[in-house]
Amino acid sequence: MEIARNDLFSAIKEIIVQSRLRIFRVANSALLESYWQIGKLIVEDEQQGKLRADYGKETLKNLSKHLTQEFGKGFDDSNLRNIRSFYTAFPIRDALRHELSWTHYRLLSRLDSEEKRTFYINESIVSNWNSRELERQINSLSFERALTEPKENKLKPNIQDYIKDPYIFEFLGLNPDVKNTERGLESAIINHLQKFLLEFGKGFAFVARQQHIVTDTSDFFIDLVFYNYILKCFVIIDLKTTSLSHQDIGQIDMYVRMYDDLKRNDGDNPTIGLLLCTEKDETIVKYSVLNDKNQLFASKYLLYLPKEEELKAIIEQDRQRFELDNL
């Protein structure tokens, strides 16, 4: 009898959840459509006023006053500016993605290029980012941290489209000013696995922690193993709480070879090895197998979210090195 009641509860719950989702989608679509039309009218009215700043400012203030008196909250001059920016950034109504909310679009409208907006729209949908995660990715310059320029509709994606440098792990809650252990870093990643996967990129699924690999003569333990279902390959991660060394590179190279030999299945592409370290010595990178193999990568990670200018400087240095190494 109890089982039947549970089944009844589950069935009714599912109906209610799906009904609310449909209501949200319809309401969200209507909101986006109305804000787009309002933005269009505001821009067209300002263009008739020859885009004079004082004119536009006064128009929004008066408009806000009348709309608030008529409809209540939601039409202050700040939100009207957001609505105007929304239309300016997305002038083609049919191109709007209704999977995204008004909060998503308010953040996207502030971006300074169509390429960035397209990147963050696609990532938000594919990776199911809520507006808070989208804001974090924008603030941490996810677009700029990609090793290669993100391109839409690539015929054949490769691992370089998914690797970032640096990675930002401020959500792990570790103190960047103290010496952390590799086991502590690994445990923090597992405890915040969902956030780690959002930072890591699309297509990754967790496989194992400290995966035991047995050979004829030795036992080895790989820190973290993921599978990317888009690239159809395993990605093994070796965590380091120190600067990159040539011993680390030799170890990840060996792990990749062993994994290909012992764990890789028919139909899987070659295994990828990623070293995550606190610092990279570019001389070691240049004169090691990292410079020759498309299966091995090293990326720096930060346990805090740096100021925008600092992060931009780090990204620019890494991008210049990457481009020089791939001429």
Automatic annotation (TrEMBL):
<protein>
    <submittedName>
        <fullName>DUF1016 domain-containing protein</fullName>
    </submittedName>
</protein>
<dbReference type="Pfam" id="PF06250">
    <property type="entry name" value="YhcG_C"/>
</dbReference>
<feature type="domain" description="YhcG PDDEXK nuclease">
    <location>
        <begin position="161"/>
        <end position="312"/>
    </location>
</feature>
<dbReference type="Pfam" id="PF17761">
    <property type="entry name" value="DUF1016_N"/>
</dbReference>
<dbReference type="InterPro" id="IPR053148">
    <property type="entry name" value="PD-DEXK-like_domain"/>
</dbReference>
<feature type="domain" description="YhcG N-terminal">
    <location>
        <begin position="12"/>
        <end position="145"/>
    </location>
</feature>
<dbReference type="InterPro" id="IPR041527">
    <property type="entry name" value="YhcG_N"/>
</dbReference>
<dbReference type="InterPro" id="IPR009362">
    <property type="entry name" value="YhcG_C"/>
</dbReference>
<dbReference type="InterPro" id="IPR011856">
    <property type="entry name" value="tRNA_endonuc-like_dom_sf"/>
</dbReference>
